[in-house]
Specification:
The structure is a single chain. This protein has four helices and four strands. It is mainly alpha-helical. A two-stranded parallel sheet has the order 1-4. The longest helix is centred in the middle third of the chain and has 22 residues. The model has no long low-confidence stretch (mean pLDDT 88).
């Protein structure tokens, strides 16, 4: 089909030390990754486990790009892990979304994925 592939790492707010305010905005662990163990018991992943999972995801993405010889854009390293930049676990504020779109467009052109 002539489509060109480019992989991106996934930015997130997860980091070693997070404030209570930052932990309060996390929705993935409360809703998406919540495990019902029984009617009265739930298991909620720790912030550390989410951080480790995201690091593993980005490591695999990087390895697949290298092994497949496709461009990789390391977006995760471009966005500071703060509430100024994230609304929740991995969704950006409007300001960062606009900055990200411009950054990504330039990189896709530089990698030859877009003209």
């Amino acid at each position: 089909t002539g489509a060109k592939v480019c992989l991106l790492t996934q930015p997130s707010i997860y980091r070693e030390r997070m404030s209570l305010e930052e932990n309060d905005v996390l929705v993935f662990r409360k809703f998406i990754f919540l495990t019902e163990k029984s009617f009265f018991e739930q298991e909620i992943p720790t912030t550390r486990s989410l951080r480790d999972a995201m690091a593993a995801y980005n490591a695999v993405t990087t390895r697949v790009a290298q092994q497949s010889n496709v461009p990789l854009i390391d977006v995760a390293s471009q966005i500071d892990k703060t509430l100024d930049n994230f609304l929740d676990d991995c969704h950006y504020t409007k300001r960062v979304a606009e900055k990200f779109a411009k950054f990504l467009a330039k990189r896709l052109v530089a990698e030859g994925v877009l003209q």
